[in-house]
Amino acid sequence: MLFWVIAAMLTLGASLAVLLPLAGGSRSASPSGDHDLEVYRDQLSELDRDAARGLIKPAEATEARAEIARRILRLDTAASSSGLTLSTRPASAMARLVATAAVLAVPLVSWGLYSQIGSPDLPSQPLAERLAKNPADSSVDELVARAEAHLAANPSDGRGWDVLAPVYLRMQRFTDAAAAYRNAIRLDGDNAARQAGLGEAIAGAAGGIVSADAQDAFEAALKLDPANAKARFYLAMALAQEGRTKEAAAAWQAMLATLPSDSAWRGAVEQALAKSNAPEVASAADAKGPDAADVDAASSLSPQDREAMINTMVAGLDDKLRQNPRDPEGWMRLVRSYVVLGKTDQARDALGRAIAVFGADSEEAKKFTAFAASLGLTATE
Amino acid sequence: MVETGHFALVLAFALSLVQTIVPLVGARLDNQRLMAVGGPVAVTGFALTALSFAALASAYATSDFSLANVWENSHSLQPMIYKITGTWGNHEGSMLLWVLILTFFGALVAAFGSNLPASLRANVLAVQGAIGAAFFLFILATSNPFIRLNPAPIEGRDLNPILQDLGLAIHPPLLYLGYVGFSICFSFSVAALIEGRIDASWARWVRPWTLVAWMFLTGGIAMGSYWAYYELGWGGFWFWDPVENASFMPWLAGTALLHSAIVMEKRSALKIWTLLLAILTFSLSLLGTFLVRSGVLTSVHAFATDPTRGVFILCILTLFIGGSLALFALRASRLTAGGLFHPISREGALVLNNLFLTTATATVLVGTLYPLVVEAFSADKISVGAPFFNLTFAPLMVPLLVMVPFGPLLAWKRGDILAVAQRLMAAFAASLLAMLVTALFISGATVLAALGVGLAVWLVLGALTDLAVKAGFGNVSVGIMARRLAGLPRSVFGTALAHMGLGLTVLGIVGTLCFGTEKILSMHPGETVELSGHTLRFAGIYPAQGPNYSEDRGRFELIGPAGNPVGEISSAKRFYPVRQMTTTESGIKTLGLSQLYISLGDEGKDGSVVVRLWWKPLVTLIWGGGLMMMAGAAMSLMDRRLRVGAPSRRRKRIEVPASAGMP
Amino acid sequence: MTRKQKRLSVILGGLVFLGAATGLTFYALGQKASYFYMPGDLATATVQPGQRIRLGGLVEKGTIQRGQGATVAFSVTDTHKSVKVTYTGILPDLFREEQGVITEGTFGADGVFVADSVLAKHDERYMPKEVADGLKAKGVWQESKSE
Questions:
Q1: Do residues C11 and C76 both lie within one domain?
Q2: Burial per residue of B230-267, b for 16 or more beta-carbon CB atoms within 10 angstroms, e otherwise
Q3: Does the beta-carbon distance from C90 to B343 stay under 8 Å?
């Protein structure tokens, strides 16, 4: 609505710029001869200055003065011979037509064209505003962006990297996933899941080829957890890709024997085995592990992951508020987040801490209580 | 906000149509009211374009990825300054900047044009409006920066890392102010052709506009050259790249225009030539825009496969260049020719200047377009680079530069070349001395280098001689001389400054090309290297993290004569993850007027790094000279004679001097 | 000299000047323009040792050898034929295996191309224009619309 008001005002202003001069009094303009005269007069005074300063010799000055004077004389005769007068002619029909068309053209052209190419209903969407929204309302992309922003500000938050890495993997942002896994390993130490994830990310970035780097990662994972299914699966895949199909098949067979019957990896292994009997070389892209295959790659996120991400974010906010407690906005966001997540106890705890920070009688405390009440939460029971 | 900007752009287009037609018809019908429309419409159109540009810039500043243009060329982690400069770091945004500046100049004519005859003013604004309308249409039809994305992506694709530099903040706006500034000269010329006569005030007006445009273009080119110098890491300051040539051609033609406009203003001669030159200069600006914006440089074939933008600009190009030249052919004969002069005179010198400059422009034009023509008509692909331009451009420039000091000293109409030569004897002797000193005392100096130094000294001292002579050096006492010097018109200083700046630029080029040294070697941390008397120690490579990149910074210490470090230079390899691009940040240390330049290469397996080092003597003078040329233009602009008032009723009649009747 | 003769001599002087400039320009175009070749073109074209040309193609995988100091040797290929190139200096940031590259220089007597400049300047699709055109003509490289 506001946009249409602004657009209408702009159109009005633009139309006035056309209309006012047309409606204005007919100022008589000076004929061009007068302008020329002005220039010549100026040239003469400049000549006098130069001559007085001795920049030009007296003889040259006289000659130049004569030349300018001749131009002035020529100007006078030209003006009188062409019979130029100051009177403005009455507006002809043609002039009226052009004037009308011009006044009409401004709104017609602008609104007509804009209605074709504009998107008047789309509001501006500055990033900061979008990120300030409640995490529970956000799309996966937005969650990832917030996590990225958080990690850009706190690059040493190992847990943050750990949460983000598998999300990247599912969104098929393999290079980012590999970087995130490496950061998590560097900051929070090794574990089998991280190493195996790193291997999968490297392989994914290489289009499914289990490279030497990926193999290193998988082997590291197996050292930490000899039963890690992902690592075993991909190492067998590496054998298959090298053409050692028999060894690969043996490895997969061994895997099947030890995997628990409800393991999600069974299907993938069986598929790979079937493939390895076929003539063509298997590749990881054909037989994805369940992590990649089950989840629609780019857009959706499993509820658990989603919750895990939100939890990390909320925990991050909580940490921040422990360090910089005098941030009423932040406290309210935290309380609301806990309520949304269904963690009433923590919400209540946060509310208590917030009130303690500002003092029970402060303006802020009253605001907090009212805010909590609006969420169906009471400070103390 | 965003859509307001979009709407303002459309509205500005509508106004530009009105600005084209109404004043033109008004001038034709001699209707004051219709003519009066031009001014307010031009100012309003500028305000709307500015609003539109501000909306786009604020969308960039707030990372509004609901705009496709912002999404493609920005990233939320970029530093704020690069978010904002990213507005014009892409095709769509830079075209919006182009029309913003175009309407800005139109508004200036409207605001300061009260001393112009009404019909001339109306016609100028109409032509300006027509150029605006064409480019607004181009933007709206093929390059609209306000295309929206719904749903909006959460992160942008980042600005090309090479453009994430302060150079981008300054270079394109300056360049466009220059390019587009020549549109005023063009509009004046076409307006004069439409009217069929050239007023005296026409001549007065074209010169300051040329000066303004030329000043900015000089700055834009100098800035672009420095940017390429430090950003590309190749240590070169000019590559004869088609994109560079595209800005250099209007500069050469504009320089010619600047000089021929003096003759026209002072002597009413060379009128028709000046008019043609004004048309050609802006045509070259348009050609430059076409070359850079159409994709034709990427490949003639790329242009043919994705023709919308290219063909559109080509149509604009044909319309304006073809139209104005056709008008010129029709009307030029009706214009009265100007006064006569002796070949040896100030006018004669300026004509010679024009001859050389326009020929040089033509040479650059041929060199730039030839590969495109060859590629279009045959299967061959060729490139025309520095060797071609060195062979053709330099022989044209050297005689021109030798003649520069003579020009300002020659008298109008009939000059005395011998007297001028006598006055320049001191400057000539000094430059001979400079040549001898260079040849004898500087090791490694070639004959060419000595001649180059002599030429530079000749230019600088020649400009000073002009000032000294005009102040009456040798004839009057020091006190009077100082007073006369202070009383000289500013334009005399402007000329001297610009010519001196030219000399300094020549000196910088000669110094860098003839006395510079270069080393490529692989270094281990702790090693030192000697380059033209400077000792550098490689301290090692240190990783660091930037806002949207990570880098490996190679540190070098400059070792003083006592063996202690006296300065640090660091060059870095930066990696921008969003675009998966690596850039090299060169390390530059300015010592006096010279620079040490370091560029980092690949890291070896054993921890060594390939390093390329340059010693570039006097290199800063190349751009310092450019700045001085700008200062000269600014000084000239302040000259009182460029401020001609509007005719007033009170001073209607003037005394015709008594000598007027005499032949 | 009469006024007419003077004017004539001025005009003649101008024409001689322009003629000389035109002649020089076209002489320089003939001499200094460097032709662009892909490795496969070299079989049919006659390129003298010492003649300056531009050679473009892809950097062949596994051929990059770093020698003494800053000298690098690699092969440029159009996937059918390849040419060995040596270069002393700093390679551009975008120089990678299997990426497009343009080198400028001359052939030595031993058939190795000695480049004095290496460009990996590219458009948005990471391919120098000449190389992309050349590869397209040979049917090696398809334009991929990845977006």
A1: no
A2: bbbbbbebbebebebbbbbbbbbbbbbbbbbbbbbbbb
A3: no
C138 & C104 share domain: yes
Are A358 and A327 in contact, with CB atoms under 8 Å apart?
Answer: no
Provide the number of structural domains found in chain C: 2
Burial code (b: 16+ CB inside 10 Å, e: under 16) for B162-183 equals: bbbbebbbbbbbbbbbbbbbbb
ipTM, two decimals, is 0.83
**C133 CB near a chain B CB, below 8 Å?**
yes
Residues C27 and C85 in one domain: no
Asked if B10 lies within 8 A of A117 by C-beta distance, the reply is yes
- In a shared domain, residues C15 and C46: no
Same domain, C43 and C82: yes
User: Are C88 and C43 spatial neighbours (Cβ–Cβ below 8 Å)?
Assistant: no
Cα dist from C58 to B223, B344, C46, C82, C127, whole Å? 34, 59, 22, 9, 9
**Which residues lie closer than 8 Å to B339 by C-beta, 6 or more apart?**
A67, B267, B268, B269
Angle between helices B200-231 and B166-195 (to 10 degrees): 160
Where do we find the tokens 């939460």? A377
Q: How many CB atoms lie within 10 A of CB A41?
A: 18
> In terms of residues, how long is chain A?
381
CA atoms within 13 A on the CB side of B457: 21
On whether both C12 and C72 belong to a single domain, the answer is: no
Pick from B382, B615, A308, B292: which is nearest to C35 by CA? Answer: B382
- Taking the CA atoms of chain A, what radius of gyration do you get in angstroms? 40
**First vs last C-alpha separation in chain C:** 75
Residues 6+ apart with CB under 8 A from B329: none
CA distance B583 to chain A (A): 19
Dihedral (CA of B189, B190, B193, B197) sign: negative
Q: Quick one: pLDDT at residue A233?
A: 86
Q: Work out the pLDDT band at C140, boundaries 50, 70, 90.
A: low
Burial classification of residue A206, based on how many CB atoms lie within 10 Å of its CB (0-12 exposed, 13-18 middle, 19 or more buried)? middle
Burial of residue B160, with CB atoms counted within 10 A of its CB: 0-12 exposed, 13-18 middle, 19 or more buried = middle
Contacts of A242 (CB under 8 A, 6+ apart): none
Q: Which residues pair with C115 in a beta bridge?
A: C87, C105
Contact predicate B118/B109, CB 8 Å: no
B367 at C interface, C-beta within 8 A: yes
Domain extent listing, chain B: 1-159, 165-403, 409-516+622-663, 517-616
For residue B657, pLDDT beyond 70: no
A7–B647 C-beta distance less than 8 A: no
Neighbours of B610 (CB within 10 A): 23
DSSP B47-116: HHHHHHHHHHHHHHHTT-TTBHHHHHH--TTS-HHHHHHGGGSSHHHHHHHHHHHHHHHHHHHHHHGGGS
C5 lies in which domain range?
A: 1-33
Give the model's pLDDT for residue B275: 92
Q: Which residues pair with B559 in a beta bridge?
A: B535, B565
Interface of C with B in 93-122 (CB under 8 A): 93-94
pLDDT digits (tens, 9 = 90+) for B358-403: 999 999 999 999 988 888 887 777 888 888 998 999 999 999 999 9
Cα dist. B606→B522, B523, B602 in Å? 11, 10, 12
Q: How many CA atoms lie within 13 A of B442 on its CB side?
A: 18
Residue B425, exposed/middle/buried by CB under 10 A (0-12, 13-18, 19+)? Answer: exposed
Radius of gyration of chain C (CA): 22
Judging contacts by C-beta atoms under 8 Å, the chain B residues touching residue A125 are 64-66, 152
Angstrom distance (rounded) from CA B440 to CA B443? 8
Within 8 A of B382 by CB-CB distance, chain C residues are 33-36
Same domain, C128 and C90: yes
Tokens of B123: 């016609």
Question: Measured between alpha carbons, how far is A248 from A210 in angstroms, rounded to an integer?
Answer: 13
